[in-house]
Amino acid sequence: MRIAIDAMGGDYAPAETVKGAEKAASGNKSLEIVLVGDEKKIKEHMSGDFPNISISHTEEYVEMHESPSAALRKKPNASIIVAAKMLKERKVDALISAGNTGALLEATLLYVGRIKTDKVKIKRPAISVVLPTFNKPTILLDAGANPECKPEYLIQFAQMGCIYSKHIIGVDNPTVGLINIGSEDNKGSAVIKASYELLKSSNLNFKGNVEPSTIMKNGEVDVAVADGFTGNIVLKTAEGTGELVTRLIKKHVSNNIFAKIGGLLIKGAFRQIKKDLDHSEHGGALLFGIDGICIKAHGRAKHDAIENAVKVAVRMINKEIIKKVGEEMSEK
Amino acid sequence: MRIAIDAMGGDYAPAETVKGAEKAASGNKSLEIVLVGDEKKIKEHMSGDFPNISISHTEEYVEMHESPSAALRKKPNASIIVAAKMLKERKVDALISAGNTGALLEATLLYVGRIKTDKVKIKRPAISVVLPTFNKPTILLDAGANPECKPEYLIQFAQMGCIYSKHIIGVDNPTVGLINIGSEDNKGSAVIKASYELLKSSNLNFKGNVEPSTIMKNGEVDVAVADGFTGNIVLKTAEGTGELVTRLIKKHVSNNIFAKIGGLLIKGAFRQIKKDLDHSEHGGALLFGIDGICIKAHGRAKHDAIENAVKVAVRMINKEIIKKVGEEMSEK
Fold first, then answer.
1. What is this structure's pTM?
2. Cα B256 to the chain's mean position, in Å?
3. Taking CA A272 as the corner, what is the angle to CA A268 and CA A273, rounded to the nearest 5 degrees?
4. Which of A65, A94, B16, B283 is 20 to 30 A from A174 via CA?
5. Contact check, Cβ <8 Å, A238/B234
6. Tell me: the pLDDT tens digits for A34-81?
7. What gap in Å lies between CA A275 and CA A266, rounded to an integer?
8. Cα–Cα distance, A237 to A232 (Å, whole number)
9. Which residues have C-beta within 8 Å of that of residue B249, sequence separation ≥ 6?
10. Does residue B216 contact residue B131 with C-beta atoms inside 8 Å?
């Protein structure tokens, strides 16, 4: 099993991507990791020799703030392009990047392409994330790949979400909800209403519209479907609110000596909560619909998030999640 | 100064609306409160005689789950219609309801109408809420009145948001951000992009696109503008995430004896955080654009939230916020 990691992608690359790769490689000897990027820079951060880590050298890479299309045109040997080509040629079984999301999406669309089988042709890949909710994880997709969507995309997202939930999370007959601003069936834009009708007439376990408040609180459904604009707003609001609460706790706890002692006593609990909420702990987002396992780790991913992403990739490779799309989906 | 409260609106009406009205009336003797609703039911919950509380009797009211248009047609004497007519006829200076949001919006649109002056005509009213962020409050609008918006609506929302921020929060030259899925200027749907251009060429203190993560964390801007779909998604995700974190804390704290003791010691801090996050503490949402002060309290509002809404209404009456729209806005 071989996994390519874009060593140059992410706010803390290559230091943290290399460290994460080393930890993943040490923990799983049957795994081969290919670090794609500037060999000299990568070696500076390597702590020793790893029999199961190799380097695919390229000097170019897309920076976080660059405009994806322009950067990819200007840098045909960017690490993300090299990695995407390896995935296309099946030289690796999965690709992980914490770099520029737009560049990852464009590079994989261009150089790997979408899933196409006799039965189904994926119209758009969706960024699929695992939302931490109270009882159980909810798969949210699309979390940002397609700001504007047609109802036909959303139904495919729902089908792919169910494949994720079933095979990766282990849920039998996953429930599906459409993210909306009310649970009544006449809510939302024309696209949302048409998507609702499509989902209702599908053979999915569709539970109707769900509000993000209920999803976050109760994990109301196993799969929450949205256009990429709405999904991204949900993800970023949840992220910001989580940080807001953490900061408020720190502020109020340091205001008074009893609270301070109390704060020390519950430090362990807090670490656990931060872990529960941190979606890098859940291994990053799958660009589901690309014809190969392609995982986007958080831009601020540290080594443990990279290591987690590798673990998720391994699970997805073992479960043959891409193959499942061809086996279980069909043009309704 | 007279304020009408829809006594029958809200999950805990009339018990909590009546109790909230009593507290507000006791705290401010110069205020007159008119409870609109079923006299018999209201009196059952009144704890005594209040010289500054009167009742405007009507037996009909819109229930929380009813379809707004149908309910208003069927019940011409619904409490919310009676209250809206009082606002229109200037028999009261403000209206507060914790009831069905759609019904409140339709009733006020129909029976009060939008702000129209020589200089400006409000195209759509926007639900304007005060988001609790870390450093300072951010006014979010539209938080749900108009799921689909034109750029011309969004620029009016921004202008109204600035009036709110300036006169109610006390911010000089408030900053404005457009809620988007990235801070780059080419992000989002066609409507968002066109709104961006309009805002950029306006004389507002426009800071460009802002992501909800930054707003929640840092209170990046004083006024955050969005279409009602996006704004509502932000509000409900923040609400759900806040509750999720609180529930996670409770779960982990009760897991171990030290954490339990710690939890007790920081109870006060938590109460404060809950207060910081609870937007009912901020007095509910203004239906800004209606030609009269019309405040929507949370459906789950208890008496303290109603009391707070009255306080906010008093501030808005004193600051003549509706008049400010005519004075400070113009068709650009």
1. 0.90
2. 40
3. 115
4. A94
5. no
6. 999 999 999 999 999 999 999 999 999 999 889 999 999 999 999 999
7. 14
8. 8
9. A266, A269, A270, A273, B263, B270
10. yes
Q: pLDDT tens digits, residue range B188-200?
A: 888 999 999 999 9
Q: How many CB pairs under 8 A join A and B?
A: 196
pLDDT over 60 at B52, yes or no? yes
Residues of B in contact with A252 (CB under 8 A): 266, 268-270, 272-273
CB pair distance less than 8 Å for B212 and A236 = yes
Which residues from chain B sit within 8 angstroms of residue A269, using beta carbons? 249, 252-253, 255-256, 259, 262-263
C-alpha dihedral, B296 to B299 to B302 to B303, nearest 10°: 30
- Is the alpha carbon torsion for B7, B10, B15, B21 positive or negative? negative
Q: What single-letter DSSP state applies at residue A185? A: T
CB A142 within 8 A of CB A332: no
- Whether B237 and A253 lie within 8 Å, measured CB to CB: no
Residues facing B223 on adjacent strands: B139, B176
Residues of B in contact with A229 (CB under 8 A): 181, 188-189, 230
| Amino acid letter for position A265 | L
Inter-chain touch B241–A179, beta carbons under 8 Å: no
**Cβ–Cβ gap A242/B239 under 8 Å:** no
Pairing of strands B175-179, B32-37: unpaired
Asked if A292 and A95 touch (Cβ cutoff 8 Å), the reply is yes
